[in-house]
Automatic annotation (TrEMBL):
Keyword Ribonucleoprotein attached: no
Subcellular localization: Cytoplasm
Name by which UniProt lists this protein: Sulfur carrier protein FdhD
Source organism of the structure: Ramlibacter humi
Annotated GO MF terms: sulfur carrier activity; sulfurtransferase activity
UniProt cross-references to Pfam families, sorted A to Z: FdhD-NarQ (PF02634)
GO CC, alphabetical: cytoplasm
Active site positions, chain numbering: 111 (cysteine persulfide intermediate)
Database matches in InterPro entries: Cytidine_deaminase-like, FdhD
Keyword Cytoplasm recorded: yes
Annotated keywords: Cytoplasm, Molybdenum cofactor biosynthesis, Transferase
Length: 278
C-alpha cells in the first residue's frame, strides 16, 4: 500500500531588485530557497533546504536513500505544510532503532543538505547493480534532451538539475538548491511509481543524470536506486570514483554536447566512435 501524500507546492522563483554593471536597476528572478523540517512520528529528524517543487517525493526519497525505511509501504502518510515549513511523516509501525541509526553522521560535500548517515558507507558492498549497457548514441540523445529542457536554471540560475531516463526517454526532471535533494526527489517518485531500476537491462537501461559533481554520496544514492549508469555535466571526486569502481558502475562526467569522460565501468558503454562527429 502506497502512502498518502499531500500536494503542497510553493513558488520556485522570486523577483528581486538588482543593479547591473552600469548601476541601472533591474528586476530578476532568483530561486526561492526555503527550509523544510522533517518530523517522523513526531520526532524531528532533519531540516532540508529546498525549492519545494515536490516536497513529498523529496521526503520519501530522503528516507529511502538514508536507508531508514525499506519500502514505501512502511509509510502511512507524508503531510507538508508550508505555513510552518514542516513535513510530518507518519509510519505504520515506527522506524526500528531510529535514535541509534541517526546518531552517526558523516559530513559530506553535499550542497543544500550536507550530511549522510554513516551506515550508508557500510552497506555499499551489499548493492548489486543490473547488467545495464548504454549505447553511445543514446547518451548523446540524453544530453540533447537535457539541453532542450526548460528549467528554473535557465530563468534564474543557482540550482542543480537531475533527471531519470529509461534509454533516451526522460521520465522525470527535477531541480532543487542541492543535487542531493533532486536525487532524493527522484528516488521518492520512483517508489510512488513502482519503478525498479534493477529490472533494467539490455537496450533500455535506467540512466541518472545530474548537473552536479559525482561525490561518493551521489554514487551511493544512484546505486541504491538500482541505477548502473550515471552521467554528470560536472566531474567526479576521488571517493566517488573509488565507490563507483567497487560497485562496477558506469560513470560519465564532463558530459556536454558530444563530449564526455568515462571514469569507471567502460564495459557498460556500447562505444560507437562514428557517432562523435554526426
Amino acid at each position: 500500500m502506497l502512502p498518502r501524500l499531500t500536494q503542497a507546492r510553493a513558488p520556485l522563483t522570486r523577483e528581486v531588485a538588482v543593479l547591473d554593471e552600469h548601476g541601472q536597476p533591474q528586476r530578476i528572478s532568483i530561486p526561492a530557497e526555503r527550509d523544510l523540517t522533517v518530523y517522523v512520528d513526531r520526532r524531528e529528524l532533519v531540516t532540508l533546504m529546498t525549492l519545494g517543487a515536490h516536497p513529498e517525493w523529496l521526503v520519501l526519497g530522503y528516507l529511502r536513500n538514508q536507508r531508514l525505511v525499506r519500502s514505501a509501504g512502511e509509510i502511512e502518510s507524508v503531510t507538508v505544510d508550508w505555513e510552518v515549513s514542516s513535513a510530518a511523516v507518519k509510519t505504520r509501525a515506527g522506524i526500528d532503532r531510529i535514535e541509534e541509526r541517526t546518531a552517526k553522521r558523516v559530513v559530506t560535500t553535499g550542497c543544500g543538505q550536507g550530511s549522510v548517515f554513516g551506515a550508508l558507507m557500510d552497506e555499499v558492498e551489499a548493492i548489486a547493480l543490473p547488467d545495464a549497457v548504454l549505447a553511445q548514441e543514446t547518451l548523446y540523445a540524453i544530453l540533447e534532451a537535457i539541453r532542450q529542457q526548460e528549467s528554473t536554471y535557465k530563468s534564474a540560475g543557482s540550482v542543480h538539475g537531475c533527471a531519470l531516463f529509461r534509454g533516451g526517454e526522460m521520465l522525470l526532471f527535477v531541480e532543487d538548491v542541492g543535487r542531493h535533494n533532486a536525487i532524493d526527489t527522484i528516488a521518492g517518485w520512483m517508489w510512488m511509481q513502482g519503478l525498479d531500476a534493477r529490472a533494467s537491462a539490455g537496450d533500455e537501461p535506467f540512466v541518472f543524470y545530474t548537473t552536479g559533481r559525482l561525490t561518493s554520496e551521489m554514487v551511493i544514492k544512484s546505486a541504491q536506486m538500482g541505477v548502473a549508469i550515471v552521467v554528470s555535466r560536472s566531474g567526479m571526486t576521488q571517493m566517488g570514483h573509488e565507490v563507483a569502481q567497487r560497485l562496477d558502475m558506469c560513470t560519465l562526467g564532463r558530459a556536454l554536447n558530444r563530449r564526455f569522460l568515462c571514469y569507471t565501468g567502460a564495459q557498460r558503454l556500447r562505444w560507437q566512435p562514428e557517432t562523435v562527429t554526426r
